[in-house]
Amino acid sequence: MKHEPWEYLFISFNSFNFHDLFNPIWSSSLVLLIALVILYNVRTRQLRTHAPYLEMYEWLLWTGVISFGLLVTYALFVFDFLFVVITIPIMLGVFIWIRFIHFPPILAAYEQKLARQRYFSRSRFAHPESTIRTKPARRRRRR
Question: Greater confidence, 14 or 125?
Fold first, then answer.
């Protein structure tokens, strides 16, 4: 270490100053950004009829696009290391908040709604003649 620890925050984030962190951060950000877009496309096609899950994956997508895009931008345009240090914990905190705090109550309520629909559907068609349409009563026409 040539500088005090807090002085590293104001040094530009490039491969010369941070040779052990620079390449892993920008390359993993790019790989995770591509993986996130692929995961979003696959999961939204699988869950196209389940709106709360689609909403959660959309939140995760945009959080990832913004944060991983920022990390790649910081590496490309040589920002100070302070921005990298601030972005990574905020990004991880938002990912954890979305997946484990914000959406679990919404998903639990949706699963209860689906279970209720399945129960009523099952009880509605439990009687063998419930699916047979009855003939309407014939009425005489007045002339």
Answer: 14
